[in-house]
Design goal:
Rossmann fold, globular, 347 residues, single chain, ten-stranded mixed beta sheet
Length: 347
């Protein structure tokens, strides 16, 4: 294999969380760092903390927020240089996006950016570049490749069930064989933090043809890796007879893979175990105080192994891309000067 001039493997994170800090909340953050850290969930920082030190993922002056990245040709060009794409969670609904109708007019600004994201997912994978996507990002990624999204029932008219907290899911037979989820990387039943209304309802079929800017590509594998029976509603576990997809892998004929994870592996660490619930106290009003307190509790059985999903994905994605391109990236650690960012992390 040849080396791309000592370059390090590059990951591009796209942050879809629209819940940004207002001016007062961001007062203690330097102006130049606000596009990177002045949001209320800080998904990129949590994801970045789990990436290997030899992976380049932070570039000063280049934002992660999808509105800033996908509406700017300079940032889109920068995105295209990445070797792997990571799509985060969001307060937006992939189910509602899936079902929008353009009969009454053109798509809005955010819908247009989500359409661009779908195309980016396809174009990345057509080049042999893999994608990791969780929660909303995972739903959007599966939708881009021909899958379908579902939505949990309403608690009361106009208010959809929010499934939140550390929930158990179990590996399927495919999951037990998977190089990221199986082979001892995760226990057969594992816990991870969730916060969602939507879910992946259906994966694309094998042999599906997907058009891209580089030509056609085909789905060669489409497997459910983890499932959960029922969903946690206001009154406890509901519809336990129904299996919900918690993780999946879709592979195309270029060798690229999309790993979709419904949970939040980036929050599967002890110090941020109930971060998402703490950041959204409105959940107590919507789902009830008893539900909220339960969602705050981390089960004693939780072993935080779900945090390994992200670095394991990077190792697999890099290996596949190196094999397809016949290159070898540097494994040297990178000094990315992240201290200024991490000092503004919400505790």
């Amino acid at each position: 294999m040849t080396s791309p001039k000592g370059e390090n493997f590059r990951a591009q994170i796209i942050d879809f969380n629209p819940r940004r800090m207002n001016t007062e909340e961001a007062a203690g953050i330097p102006t130049d760092l606000r596009p990177l850290v002045a949001d209320k969930r800080q998904y990129p920082l949590h994801i970045g903390s789990l990436l290997p030190t030899d992976v380049a993922w932070y570039s000063p002056g280049h934002p992660w927020f999808f509105r800033d990245v996908l509406s700017n040709s300079r940032e889109t060009d920068e995105l295209n240089k990445a070797n792997v794409l990571i799509l985060t969670g969001s307060g937006m609904s992939a189910f509602q996006y899936q079902n929008i109708s353009f009969a009454e007019g053109p798509p809005g600004f955010e819908d247009t950016l989500l359409m661009i994201t779908e195309q980016k997912v396809k174009d990345f994978m057509a080049q042999g570049k893999s994608v990791f996507a969780n929660c909303f990002g995972g739903q959007l990624g599966v939708l881009a490749l021909g899958g379908k999204i579902g939505r949990l029932p309403e608690v009361v008219p106009g208010t959809t069930t929010t499934e939140a907290g550390w929930l158990s899911q179990r590996l399927t037979e495919a999951g037990k064989r998977d190089p990221i989820f199986g082979n001892g990387n995760l226990p057969e039943q594992f816990y991870a933090p969730h916060f969602h209304n939507d879910y992946v309802a259906e994966l694309p079929p094998v042999d599906l043809m997907i058009p891209t800017d580089s030509g056609r590509m085909f789905v060669v594998k489409s497997e459910v890796l983890a499932v959960r029976n029922g969903y946690l509603g206001k009154n406890g576990l509901e519809h336990p007879e129904q299996e919900f997809i918690m993780a999946s892998v879709i592979e195309v004929d270029t060798g690229a893979v999309l790993y979709q994870v419904q949970a939040h592996p980036e929050m599967s660490v002890r110090q941020y175990a109930n971060f998402l619930v703490r950041q959204n106290p409105w959940l107590a009003d919507e789902m009830g105080s008893e539900y909220y307190e339960q969602a705050l509790t981390v089960p004693e059985e939780a072993d935080f192994s779900a945090a390994n999903i992200i670095p394991n994905f990077i190792a697999l994605a890099r290996e596949r891309y190196e094999a397809s391109q016949k290159i070898m990236f540097s494994r040297a650690a990178i000094a990315q000067n992240l201290g200024a960012l991490y000092q503004h992390m919400i505790k």
